[in-house]
Amino acid sequence: MRHMIEKEILEQAAALRHELHRHPELSMQETWTRKHLIQFLKEHTSLEIVDRGRWFYAVYHKDDSAKKIAFRADFDAVPVQEAKELVPYCSENEGVGHKCGHDGHSAALAAFAMQLDRCGADCNVYLLFQHAEETGQGAQECLPFLKENGIDEIFAVHNMPGLELGAVAVAEGVVQYASTGMTISFQGLRSHACYPEDGRNPAYAISEMVVELEKLRAAQKYQGLTLITIIGIRVGEHAFGTGAGEGELLLTVRGENGEELADLIRHIEQMAEQKAAVYGLKWSVQYEDAFEDCFNHRESVEKVRNAAEQAGIKLQDLEEPFRASEDFGRFTKEVPGAIFYVGSGREHPALHTPDFDFPDEILEVIAVMYCALVKSEQKIL
User: Fold this and answer.
1) C-alpha torsion sign, points 3, 61, 301, 299
2) Residue 249: how many CB atoms within 10 A of its CB?
3) What is the model's pTM?
4) Which of 97, 110, 158, 290 makes a 20 to 30 Å CA pair with 212?
5) Which phi and psi (to 5°) does residue 88 adopt?
6) What is the model's pLDDT at position 122?
């Protein structure tokens, strides 16, 4: 890398990441994390801080006529227990861990904030620290940030195991799938177990759906890949004298194309309605953890590629979109932008696993990329 971040800044950013790692918080519960990040930026920069409750942003203001570029980092954790004594700064919150690397994303943005504060810029720079990425709620709540500040372009990063350590990967168009969680509930009628004919048991409707869902998906013949994953099934209770009268089928449905995903969901709803009619059941569906497909704009992708070349960082093209979802796509539906990926190592443990830990080595890569992206518009270093 040709553009180096000051050693002191990198050390402070790594220490910040370790503190965030010790205190992981789930989506919509990130009270300590948000306060700690705000306090860190107040102590180490003179940037303006705008606290919006569950999320906040920092501003480097040049003048009202200058371009407005935003960079987004997420800071929520996931419900995964960290492997015992994995690192000296292990999670202190039972059953919760920074197993997606959001501690690193926020620490890297903080490093960029410190560099920006020291070196300045010829444009207006907004640093968005976002909550609840894992559930898709965060970006939705942060959307007003774009219009309120007249943001012209927005960028984000995600670390990615399986890619070469420190390499940058990016692509145009859809880079991460759309998805949603579905809970399909059936309400029938309980009966004594010796008189099942007197009840309406949802187990049959749910069982048939489980068998037929994959056939349904395949029959639609979409251009992009679509997937239906069965997450859970609940029918009745632990009571051998009573026939089940209610049940739930939990699914995660995802697709490369958002419109095709919406069409598949409509077909699943139709199937549920048909099964309910056959077995005399009432039915309903609830959605959660909804994500749009994550789309990268061509001009923004070219800026990422140019930034990597200018900074002397190895560049890769993505051969296909990642199946995992990312709520950054909500932002690029509103303004131009791109998310890029920095390799955590080819053999690095996978995201959302107990052995994963964000590598401190790529804090500098991310901060350098942000600096180079600003420099591609105006000089910062």
Assistant:
1) negative
2) 26
3) 0.94
4) 290
5) -65, -20
6) 86
